[in-house]
Structures are given as structure tokens and as C-alpha cells.
């Protein structure tokens, strides 16, 4: 993005003014700089490559042939429709086929895709597809459960509702027993 296209502190000051606020008052004076920094963090997933995160390693554990599941992975994202936050937890699992990754890499994978403007459905598929493409496991399952501030704070204003999305790839699609096992492990 060129400097002419970049959203700057000046733009945040203009937003505050357009809302009827005085960006020079003490409580808001540093807000444009803070918001600029916050949005760089909230969208830092665009600058990260999932392939780099998911480098497989070999230490003997690659012979493991049962499901590997990490649950309770924090999700903090922003919807692309309103720029409103959505947040919750993800469960990511896979059935290895000779390649494994460190468990923290699954958390990092979720973080990469959640730090982009998103819709929950696409984010769920992106996480699953990246894991499937890089590790080439026998199966991948992803379940994401989030609350959406665009629903809770405006529009229908329903507090506490959770949206649950899932993506099942490989053997999790046709194998009902494996799918049932994954979903049981994913359940809180």
C-alpha cells in the first residue's frame, strides 16, 4: 500500500471529529496513535504466511496415527462487514499421515487467519485448508465458536449468542466414526 493510500492518525482524528468529538481533548488526544497501532496488530495476519508456521518436523512422533486435537484456542477477529469484533474459541485437529507440527503451531495458525478482516465461515475453512495443504494429513477438523459484536451491539442486539462453524476435510467427511470422535473431543 502506498503512503497516499495508508490510513493515518489524521484519518482517525477526522473520524473522531465526524462523530462530534474533539480529538484534542485530553482523553482523546493520543487516541489516533493508539488506534493506528491497534489496527496494525489486529490485521497483522496479512503479513504472516501459514506455510512458514506449519513446518513439519521429525522426531519419531510422526508415526503417531490417532487424532491430535487442540481446543480452547482463542479467536479475536473483526468482521469485514462492520469492522466489529468477534471473539471466541477454536478447536483444531488432524489425523497425521507421517508429518506433525508443534501443538503451538495450531494456535499460531488460528491467530494468523483471525488477524485479518473476516467472516467466521471463511476463516474456519482457511484454517482447515492450510493445515490440509501443508501437512497432508489423513483428516483435518476445525470447529470455531464465536460471539459477534455486530449482532450483540447493533441490529438484532442479542447478547450471548454463539455462532458455530466447522470444516471437516479428508477422512472426517466419509468416516462417521472418526467424525464423531473428533466432535466429541472438540466438545467443551
Automatic annotation (TrEMBL):
Alphabetical list of HAMAP family matching this protein: FolE
Pathway: Cofactor biosynthesis; 7,8-dihydroneopterin triphosphate biosynthesis; 7,8-dihydroneopterin triphosphate from GTP: step 1/1
A UniProt-annotated Pfam family: GTP_cyclohydroI
Lineage of origin: Bacteria, Pseudomonadati, Pseudomonadota, Betaproteobacteria, Burkholderiales
Name of the protein described by the UniProt record: GTP cyclohydrolase 1
EC number, UniProt record: 3.5.4.16
Domain GTP cyclohydrolase I span(s) in chain numbering: 9-186
Recorded superkingdom: Bacteria
Native source species: Massilia niabensis
Entry's family note: Belongs to the GTP cyclohydrolase I family.
Keyword GTP-binding listed: yes
Amino acid at each position: 500500500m502506498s503512503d497516499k493510500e495508508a490510513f493515518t492518525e489524521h484519518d482517525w482524528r477526522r473520524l473522531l471529529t465526524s462523530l462530534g468529538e474533539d480529538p484534542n481533548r485530553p482523553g482523546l488526544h493520543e487516541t489516533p496513535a493508539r488506534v493506528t497501532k491497534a489496527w496494525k496488530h489486529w490485521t497483522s495476519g496479512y503479513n504472516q504466511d501459514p506455510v512458514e508456521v506449519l513446518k513439519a518436523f521429525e522426531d519419531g512422533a510422526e508415526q503417531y496415527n490417532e487424532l491430535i486435537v487442540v481446543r480452547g484456542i482463542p479467536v479475536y477477529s473483526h468482521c469485514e462487514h462492520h469492522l466489529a469484533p468477534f471473539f471466541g474459541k477454536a478447536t483444531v485437529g488432524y489425523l497425521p499421515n507421517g508429518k506433525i507440527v508443534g501443538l503451538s503451531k495450531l494456535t499460531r495458525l488460528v491467530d494468523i487467519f483471525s488477524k485479518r478482516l473476516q467472516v467466521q465461515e471463511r476463516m474456519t475453512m482457511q484454517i482447515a485448508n492450510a493445515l490440509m495443504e501443508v501437512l497432508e494429513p489423513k483428516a483435518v477438523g476445525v470447529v470455531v465458536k464465536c460471539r459477534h459484536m455486530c449482532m450483540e451491539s447493533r441490529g438484532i442486539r442479542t447478547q450471548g449468542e454463539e455462532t458455530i462453524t466447522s470444516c471437516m476435510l479428508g477422512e472426517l467427511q466419509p468416516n462417521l466414526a472418526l467424525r464423531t470422535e473428533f466432535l466429541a473431543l472438540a466438545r467443551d
